[in-house]
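Chapter review. Work through the record for 4-coumarate--CoA ligase before attempting the end-of-chapter questions.
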Amino acid sequence: MVVMHGGDIGSRTLSLDRKSGFCESTSIFYSKREPVALPPNQNLDVTTFISSQPHGGKTVFVDAVTGRRLTFSELWLGVERVAASLYALGVRKGNVVIVLSPNSILFPIVSLSVMTLGAIITTANPINTSDEISKQINNSRPVLAFTTCQLVSKLAAASDSNLPVVLMDENHVPSQNHDERVKIVGRLETMIETEPIESRVKQRVNQDDTAALLYSSGTTGTSKGVMLTHRNLIASVQACRARFGLEQRTVCTIPMCHVYGFGSFATGLIALGWTIVVLPKFEMAQLLSAVEIHRSSYLSLVPPIVVAMVNRANEINSKYDLSSLHTIVVGGAPLSREVIEKFVENYPTVKILQGYGLTESTAIAASMFTKGEAKRYGASGLLAPNVEAKIVDPDTGRILGVNQTGELWIRSPTVMKGYFKNEEATASTIDSEGWLKTGDLCYIDSEGFVFVVDRLKELIKCNGYQVAPAELEALLLAHPEIADAAVVPIPDMEAGQYPMAYIVRKAGSNLLESEIMGFIEKQVSPYKRIRKVAFLASIPKNPSGKILRRELIKLRTSKL
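Structure tokens for 4-coumarate--CoA ligase:
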């Protein structure tokens, strides 16, 4: 028995336009995709659900650097043993466990082990600064951390509570490499190899319990913990099943700490029996070599990598055999028609499938499934299975229809539970009927395709990461020679966008562009660094004091 959830078009007949999916009587766009089934058993964790899915896959993970392989049976044995070890260390349902690590074939073992206990996994980006990691730790209050020897000092600097740490490195590392501020309580490899002395007491996990806590940049600059439930992740797995076939091969270069990577490589594709070749970080030569050696059929990429492949097409095609590759899935930001056409021209056997989603929607909202859909240039695809949408005028609140631009609201089983310890932000983002306000200006055309026009949210998208202008502005205003500051995006062919700062110097200051960029560089992750500075007499603002970013963007454009 299965239960259907969400806005399937088949259940709506009155005043429904089947081409667009728009229903006049409800003012809701319904997905044209076949609805996917969600398990009716409420007492089910996502790890158990994934492990129960039938497929014929044999090898689940391959380390692209060392060649180490994990079979599905080794994966699930490792998950069971690590879960038992965590239970022995005192980890219980509702506890938070943080993982600070680059991509690794062991990353999913940690995540799945934590979630099957009913505990909550929170992922930290290894390129984040200690201050950024410290904010995440202070907010989420983990009881245990997983990290590598290379990152342990960063974790130590971020935590003042002597956080217990399990090291994830495969090989033995001399103890003198360990930071004295860190309390090492175990090694992941030892956990994987150790048979449990006694069976753990399994606590009941409900689908509505929080499974993962992924941090997303807010428009205010305050990073917020997005609570994704077991149900959200199970629905995400089922959306993957609807979109992709069983037992394919892919290379993972998207960070597993990001919702895009976590939803694909640490959960969804495992359930489909895929073989996932893991790169610790993106490096073009390693990525293309892995495709060639392991005969990858799919790649999940962000736009800057696609742009780089276009720019280096002659070199790539002469150097690498990419004949196994037939599909590239792109998320993070829209690709222009020009880039897509150039890509298809240079790689004629590969189709590009775009998609759109948010951390708050478990990376799912709209997507393309077929080569035909991919020809709808500029679109992000059709609404994903079980997703309903509204287009709302952001000024009047009026519900709009086909080909009308407004804020996209979505409702689906993948929409988050809310923001961790932040009821005010949750209430302003999800209404009483479960509609998630995406903060993106979009329209849905007469064929049901979603087009992202602009962002109401002021986030800058750099290399697939989100950068909150307000966060950088707060740092800039802390400089003793800066009277006022505003940050806007500047377009870049490879990164998509970079942060640019407009600065009002204090009287008598001769502060230089290089000094400002260096000041910020010391405090933030590489993708947040300011790449250009311009000086103004004043920052344009409205009567209430809000920065008029569009005027600054026009000013920037006129001077480029």
